[in-house]
Amino acid sequence: MIYYIIRRLLYAFPILLGINILTFVLFFVVNSPDDMARMQLGQKHVTPEAIANWKHLHGYDLPMLWNEEARGGDKVTETIFYQKSVGLFLFRFGVSDSGRNIGADIQQRMWPSLALALPSLVVGLLTNIGFALLMVLFRGSYLEFGGLVLCVVLMSISSLFYIIGGQFMIGKLLKLVPISGYDEGFGAFKFLILPVVIGVFSGIGSGVRWYRTLFLEEVGKDYVRTARAKGLTETQTLFRHVLPNAMIPILTGVVVVLPLLFMGSLIMESFFSIPGLGSYTIDAINSQDFAMVRAMVFLGSILYVLGLLLTDISYTLVDPRVRLS
Amino acid sequence: MSSLLSIKFRRAGILFFVLSCLAFLLAACGASPWNDPYPEQDDKQAVLYMSFAERPKHLDPAVAYSENEYAFIAQIYEPPLQYHYLKRPYELTPLTAARLPDITYYDQQGQKLGPAAEAKDIAYSDYLLEIRPGIRFQPHPAFAQDKQGRYRYHDLDQSAVDALATVSDFAETGTRELTAEDYVYQIKRLAYPKTQSPIAEIMKGYIIGFADFAKHSADKPRDALRALSMAGVEALDRYHYRIRIKGKYPQFSYWLAMPFFVPMPWEADAFFDQPGFGDKNITLDWYPVGTGPFYLAENNPNRRMLMFKNPNFHPEVYPAEGEAGDAEKGLLQDAGKTLPFIDKVVVTLEKETIPNWSKFLQGYYDSSGIASDSFDQAVQFTGGGVTLTESLKEKDIRLHTSVETSIFYMGFNMLDARVGGDSDKARKLRQAIAIAVDYEEFIAIFRNERGVPAQGAIPPGIFGNEEGESGINPYVYDWVNGKPKRKPIEAAKKLIAEAGYPNGVDPKTGEPLILYFDTTATSVDDKPLMNWYRKQFQKLGVQLVIRATDYNRFQQKMSAGNAQIYVWGWNADYPDPENFFSLLYGFNGKVKHSGENSGNYQNAEFDRLFEQMRNMENGEPRLQIIRQMQEIVRRDAPWVFGFHPKTFSLYHGWASNLKPNLMANNRLKYIRIDPVKRAELRRQWNRPVLWPLAAAGVLCVLLFAPAVSAYRRRTRRPRPDAMAIQTEASR
């Protein structure tokens, strides 16, 4: 398995390089260094001299990918692409075009994102699986039918409605928790209750239906019939046999997003004023901050590759038939 | 054994549940409401709670140039001058300066001239400023010294830097007296190219030696700035400094009230420039060092900014004079009392308007603007004007309105072959459009009546703006029943016919005249506005084609002069007509001179009058020239003078000394808060409502009881399909 992991990590390098080139090309197709300078320097009194000075100080006065005027290896290294990209592979994200250290910003902002995303994921997963198993238990009954209808209703409502409605009901009318905000340490608890509850509730409809489908597929299999024939109760059958056998598709959906939990949720964090990473990339795109955009795309790619690798590894834990070689 | 364990676990679970419920109820009985987002101990302090929607990018006063940045740095840094908080029209008063600057004019030979000297005779002007002694900087580690007088934190090694997270991690702080040298140092920072000050290029044209300093310091490290001298800026002694300006530029005094000209101690640069500090975002751009009433205690613009009262703040008192009516409004009750009145300012990031509005109504913000989605909840328009709704009046919320010193206009590219130029035909076309585009309707539909139609280039509150019949734009409005009334569309149709497009038809093609509107409005939300613009032009029979592009392409079009019609805005840097007329000055043309004259308007007479007017003191002769200039631009119509935005701000009754001041950014020091009243009202407004929780619990039990019973029944007996298998197996 070690060789497999090393091989997969080596595969990641060309992927990440490709993503870097693609990000670079896409960004500079839309934004020129002059546009970036204009955006950073503000609306008033932006002269060509100020733009030239900004480009020089931020290293955007170099050629994009190939420096014709340089000699030897400098033809490659004395370019915007090389200067801005090499540090990423060493996890040196550098300084944003507005002067902030990106690595320090990410470190500071990823924890609130995680504080929101992790409980939302865990509680949501347990709730969805629990309800899905109940529906499978009551399959063919009015309870299952009612549950299905409720799921369809819940998944038909926009997540924004849950957020605004939840803030209105719980925060404004009942006044049980703060409408928005955040605090450090345990103080964060009262600020996270509402977004976590809303996050879980808004995902119930689709989540329960998805897991119900997985479990229904499993309950029709021969081993389930055998378990019942052995005299196991329906609950024992579901929890001891059906659930572990449905873990492969569950893990496929869950483990891959685990590393990405750091990246936060744009809408949730925005409405609940949680100082996470959710809006970091969007803010960077809006302010045409290439340094931040490339850092976030690079980080997202690494985390996704890592998530896929972890998913593969997790298969070996739940299914002894899977071997990584 | 296992059953015993199970019983123990069950008991422990019940105990945990009961304790949790008790804790919950005890919390409910606490003094602070459940939904209070702030620590309970803050209730007793004079804390001002505000919100911000857009994070500041820079807090370095040499770089910051936007309102959301000034909201912070203006409380921390102090320029030599400030705007009087209460008096109108806006008036400069000394802040750290002992008095307003002494201005002396000199001719080409260096001979002193009198104050009434002609601008053409003045070669340079000296601004002599005297700083009040005894003003001290906020406590800061940059000033901390050991017993030998060496700076403790100016030469940290890597291990010491590694141990740092924020600037508050330094154990010791120090301070020192403000000197004239600190102001001189900041002007050097403005010129230093690595600072990238947005006003560096402008100041090269005004301050003597500024451009040379920029050139010579370009390749020098930051710590060399102190030793380098700038020809036109000099500290004469500990409390006096002089700035030498090219020619005559009376508006320079206004610049001295802006954060660009605040003092900067060299120690701050020496401290923050150390290796490794930038990697931790410990920079001067993030941690200001000032002499103002507050200092920045926490800077987390993704969550909140905390400002505490500066313990070293110099004595400053609330003004004793204001404009007529201020005393009746209670604005002079604190006259002569020491500033500031609040101990702490908590500014929280609220990106979304809905939670921001809800928290304001709950009393967790002391002030709020009014977003369009909560507008109807907040205000109503009656015959007598705008008033608050009853629900807000019951909460003792106050409304403050003020017309901003800004203008939003529809501009014509005067280089364009169709709408631009000085021909009578093009002028009449522009005048016709100016009548047709009904900004009264625009303000009603798109701004909830929050705006005033503009009659010229100068906003209300700035010298040269005139009220009444003499102040209207006679090419667009008639004076009817004591009010300006937009001319009927027939007048516009007549003008467009005279322009050569009868009924809006282009005689060359026989088709409706096609004009192009360049905009960055690309979102679906902008569609109603774009349709509205189209309809305004349709009144003339003209077809308006919307050319929506992203911001970058739009800027490129404007820089190259490829746009035809566009909308643009300007917010006053200082309250002088020169700041607005400069947007129409020919030598500020965007295409030829990269200036702020976005429409590239050029009129020789206007330019001549502008050059004369800009150097004059306010008074009747200046007003006469301004009237002539207004007449020229109204006739030439390079802009459709759109509107001046009107700000609606809401404040709770526990906040006092509030008066809109659109030029002063350092307003927080004047505000008074009654924390006792606020805490009491917050408790009243935020009592938790628990019965729905209990009802929901009962409902859950009622719903789950049949499900649990069904579950038990089902798990007791095998499923029919399982029984069938068993039966088959037994056979």
Concise structural overview:
With 325 residues, chain A is mainly α. Chain A has helices at 2-30, 33-41, 48-58, 74-77, 80-89, 102-137, 142-156, 159-173, 189-219, 222-229, 234-245, 247-254, 266-271, 280-286, 290-318. In chain B, the strands form 9 sheets. In chain B, strands 12, 15, 16, 17, 24 and 25 form a 6-stranded antiparallel beta sheet that branches.
What does this structure look like?
The complex is a heterodimer of chains A (325) and B (731). Chain A is 71% helix and 0% strand. With 325 residues, chain A is mainly α. In chain A, helix 8 (159-173) crosses helix 9 (189-219) and helix 12 runs antiparallel to helix 15. The longest helix of chain A is centred in the middle third of the chain and has 36 residues, at 102-137. Chain A is globular. The model of chain A has no long low-confidence stretch (mean pLDDT 89). In chain B, strands 12, 15, 16, 17, 24 and 25 form a 6-stranded antiparallel β-sheet that branches.
What labels describe this entry?
heterodimer; A: 325 residues; mainly alpha; 15 helices; globular; B: 731 residues; alpha+beta; 6-stranded antiparallel β-sheet; 23 helices; 32% helix; 18% strand
Question: Which helices and strands, and how do they pair?
Answer:
The complex is a heterodimer of chains A (325) and B (731).
Chain A: H1 2-30, H2 33-41, H3 48-58, H4 74-77, H5 80-89, H6 102-137, H7 142-156, H8 159-173, H9 189-219, H10 222-229, H11 234-245, H12 247-254, H13 266-271, H14 280-286, H15 290-318
Chain B: H1 2-29, E1 47-52, H2 67-76, E2 81-83, E3 92-94, E4 102-106, E5 112-113, E6 124-130, H3 158-162, H4 180-191, H5 200-204, H6 210-217, E7 233-235, E8 240-246, H7 252-255, H8 266-272, E9 294-300, E10 304-309, E11 344-349, H9 353-361, E12 367-368, H10 375-378, E13 379-382, E14 385-388, H11 390-394, E15 397-403, E16 406-412, H12 424-436, H13 439-446, E17 451-453, E18 477-480, E19 483-486, H14 489-498, E20 505-506, E21 511-512, E22 514-519, H15 527-538, E23 543-548, H16 551-560, E24 565-571, H17 577-581, H18 590-593, H19 604-613, H20 620-636, E25 639-652, E26 655-656, E27 672-673, H21 675-685, H22 691-716, H23 720-730
Parallel strand pairs in B: 1-11, 22-23
Antiparallel strand pairs in B: 2-3, 4-5, 4-6, 6-8, 7-8, 9-10, 10-11, 12-25, 13-14, 15-25, 16-24, 16-25, 17-25, 18-19, 20-21, 26-27
